[in-house]
Amino acid sequence: AQSVTQLGSHVSVSEGALVLLRCNYSSSVPPYLFWYVQYPNQGLQLLLKYTTGATLVKGINGFEAEFKKSETSFHLTKPSAHMSDAAEYFCAVRLNDYKLSFGAGTTVTVRA
Amino acid sequence: GAGVSQSPSNKVTEKGKDVELRCDPISGHTALYWYRQSLGQGLEFLIYFQGNSAPDKSGLPSDRFSAERTGGSVSTLTIQRTQQEDSAVYLCASRSGLAGTLDEQYFGPGTRLTVT
Questions:
Q1: Interface of A with B (CB under 8 A)
Q2: Other residues' Cβ atoms within 10 Å of the Cβ of residue B59
Q3: Average of per-residue pLDDT values in chain B
């Protein structure tokens, strides 16, 4: 069965520094992978997704993620953190045509 | 409305009481999901509706949990005889149900349930 594991439940970065959030997947079939963001007191919203094709995927708000089959990873990055990036981030994998499985989440804190 | 709405936004209840949580999906969305978000646990799938039927209710933790959807729209998640371990944020999401829209789940802001 497909699953994702997010490494690190909390990440603290300085404003302007690189944001790196780690996600590893387990899948017996080519995975469809997603990153969602949850701002305080809000629901989740889709940041980006990988289905097929280009392995470097660009999303909203300057985030991008790279699918690396050899490493079974789909890490999320942003070159320069902004205070507004403080949120919780979830990696997810497609289980079937109606269901996703989410990771435990990583909370990002941005220091001024 | 423009998005998925949930009510109440916060609910505090005493152990043993029943609670009902409501979800109003985006108009026209045939697929509806309930998730539970506990501290450090990520999102736990509870149940999936397609129209008024629930082909997947495999995530409901016990028979104290039930959900229904009427008119292909509003859904209610009911927890009977609440326990302290039921304390969590309950999220609802909807999507159009069309093929290829799996990732386009639109989430509500959630209901924070606290069982005392």
A1: 6, 9, 32, 34, 38, 41-46, 49, 90, 94, 97-105
A2: 16
A3: 92
- The rounded Cα A94 to chain-centroid distance in angstroms is 14
Which of B41, B48, B99 minimises the CB distance to A104?
B41
Chain B residues with beta carbon closer than 8 angstroms to that of A33? none
Residues found in chain B: 116
Model confidence over B47-104: pLDDT tens digits?
999 999 999 999 999 999 999 999 889 999 999 999 999 999 999 999 987 777 766 8
* Segment A37-53, tens digit of pLDDT: 999 888 899 999 999 88
CB B88 within 8 A of CB B94: no
State how beta strands B75-79 and B65-69 pair: antiparallel
Closest to A20 in 3D by CA, of A80, A100, A98, A97: A80
* Cβ-defined contacts of B66-69 (< 8 Å, 24+): B67/B34, B69/B32
Give the pairing of strands B42-50 and A19-26: unpaired
